[in-house]
Amino acid sequence: MKNKEIYLDACKTSKLDPEVLKEMLPYFTEKFWYPGNFTSIGNEIADALQNSKETIASSLSAKPKEIIFTSGGTDANNIALKGLMAAWENTGKHFITSKIAHPSMLKIFAALEKQGYEGSYISADQDGYLDLDELKKSIRKDTTLIAFTHVNHTLGTIQKIKEISEILKRQDHKINFFIDSCEAYAKIPINVEELGVDSLSISAHKFNGPKGVGALYIKTGTKMVQTQQGINRFQALKPGAINVPAIVGFAKIVELIFKNFSNYRNYLGKIQKLLYDGIVKNIPDIRLNGPKIGKRSPAHLNITFYYAEGEAIMMMLDFENIHVATGSACAAKDLKANYILRHTGRTHEECNSSIRFTLDKFISTTDVERTVKVLTEVIQELRRRSPLGKNRM
Active-site residue 182, yes or no? Predict the structure, then answer.
């Protein structure tokens, strides 16, 4: 009989919480209407959407009117980055991001550069922290946008957002500040007022919510041009059909997580430490990529296993129904090593020997113990077969 499936790739996507599905189902089958005035069914949906906005806004210490729903994180990033650059192009067409930003942001900026905008890409240290001195030196009179990834999806590094905000406050002209918080939200506390950001994106399927829905926070008074056209059924910046079931499900998972956020975070941190300690105890010749345990996102762990190839590790774990991600070539669907590991100083060999474990609330301590046991056997076998790794365990 096949072993129970253990899914350790929640950064890519995650299992839908059954309570969320239960909440969503009536909006597929019975309450399938759009919001509207003058009818009881339209008012009912309008109330459900407004309540969802209030729930999500509250989790960010934002106002409900500052939240718009999107089809996910990439959609939110597109609306914000293109909308902000267009709104401020008469002031300047220069933006600053980082070499280790999420690919969805880097793709958008590449497209903007083809339209005549100009970008600066700042560096990061070996733990993935952005070089803030380089940031200061990169700011120009025509810089109108700074955009970073809040928690790095590969390393789990939490960027120093408040320090970046203070740098921007000291400038003599307005620079908009956007962060992609898709990997940060529901992992670390986020208070948009305290962080000092103008806009921020989140995505529900990263923390056991439904796929196909996200949200964009836009601080009151922020200028952002509409970049999508169509029928305005609910919100001007995101016209077209409204995914009511997904929005209701999004709000439900937020409600479930934030009703006791400290316990939720502590649990993620507990299983992260259990996994890391088990690996350290049983497997020699490893390297933790990113900050120390306790200084990073509680849901992210990235480790290089020297003398073993990452894709081979991933496939052998898959045979045992344990699912992880690797930073090597084929996993990224191209022939390059993981760009984040490369930009934080890892060699090509270290990149291709790295495994990323990303966690959610459905991972149990039993799952972690079995993962460590199987992983230890896999690494032993791969090193036994490798001339570089022979007799190392």
Answer: no
